[in-house]
Amino acid sequence: MADSATPARASWSGKLAFVLAAAASAVGLGSMWRFPYLAAKYGGGTFLFVYLVFVFTIGLALLLLETALGRKTGQSSIGAFKAFGKKYMFIGVLMSAVPFIIVPYYCVIGGWVTKYLVGYAVEGPAALADGGGFFTNFISSGSESMAFMLVFMALTYLVVALGVNKGIEKANLVMMPLLIVMAAGVAIYALTLPGAMDGLAFYLLPDLSAISPELIIAALGQTFFTLSLAMGIMVTYGSYLKKSTKLTSSVTQIAGTTFGVSLLAGLMIIPATFAALGSGEAVAENSGPSLMFIILPQVFQNMGGMASALGFVFFILVLFAALTSSISLVETCTSIISDGTKCSRRRALVIVIAFTTVMGIIVNMGYSSLSFIQPLGEGSSILDFLDFVSNSVLMPIAALLTCIFVGWIIGPKVVIDEVRESAKFKLAGVWTVMVKYVAPVVLVVILVAYVAQTLGLFSM
């Protein structure tokens, strides 16, 4: 299946382009709705503090590992592991499966975001703030939800089709700064609402007595999810890096940007919903899609004349966050296909588009004509099942195997030497301990906890 027209491997134009692209990948729906919900559920400032610690310890260590592995081999995840021997290729295969599973259902949710953006512009805030009827009717509509999913997919495919430099770099250069500015603006306005200061105190002031095993596991899981670890994304993006780019400072900036946007997301959502609902517990009870698509429209509606503008701006920035992540996922899938089959990037993208679109249609139908399929029990959907397989099973396993591979098989020195191609890496000893001992234990705990939670044996 080789293609004689296979072009030279793309590369980032510079360090800023890489940092923006990697941070844009990390900043997605996980930051926009999952983080605020978890922070509200686990004591606000307490969760924020623990998450901060994990991002800049274990998160940073694994971010550096994956990026360095990609840059050293110049390959996406399958090729990166295969470069050390065919018998290790299965680790890359497991990691590569994650983006292919996530992209279809992520685009379905991206379609929901697109619908709400259009809804605020066309139908007005009152129509969306009806207690859940608008959302339920839309996702179960079949054809309408399908149409918005395809619009979101088309936007994603277009950017990836334009290439690493003309597409992904330029899109991130526009969307990321706008996302941060708009998030800051909405957060500042939210803090002016009556009662918002109580929500701010709840969100920012930690109560260390509130630390629990459930909080720690939730914060660890969020760290992996928001930093795009074990998805093949950072290996792929690392493979586009020039040897002169300093990996240590780059990954620190990526982690810092990701934490900063998560912090802003919480500032946008928690004080406003805290003021509207009266407590962090009330916010936490409305997790996932219901927080964004049911509760927040009601909160915006209560803001009177500002409801339309706030709702519209909020869903623009959520759309940007969703797009930057879906772009990185589709790019990773494209790179995996291209590297694995030696075909051109264009042909690889066509294969990815065909697969993602068909799978997205099936996932979307899980709320309408295929709603009778409930893989995880009564009330679950195809989307829930794919989310469980990718985030709760494959990602922890892939990350665990990666740590064992680098820490105990090829040895940390391989990655350390790669990092030192462009930076001093004074904390190489600490990083080695993290990869060899700390991360594997943590990943086993996360995997067991997630599986036990799904089976009803553990509550988080």
From TrEMBL:
It comes from the Bacteria. It is found in: Membrane. The keyword Flavoprotein does not apply. One of its GO terms (cellular component) is membrane. The keyword Membrane applies. CDD domains: SLC6sbd_Tyt1-Like. It is a multi-pass membrane protein. InterPro entries: Na/ntran_symport, SNS_sf, YocR/YhdH-like. One of its GO terms (molecular function) is symporter activity. Keywords: Membrane, Symport, Transmembrane, Transmembrane helix, Transport. The chain crosses the membrane at residues 12-35, 47-69, 90-113, 146-164, 176-196, 216-237, 258-279, 299-327, 348-373, 393-416, 428-452. Belongs to the sodium:neurotransmitter symporter (SNF) (TC 2.A.22) family. NCBIfam families: Na_transp. PANTHER family: TRANSPORTER. This is Transporter.
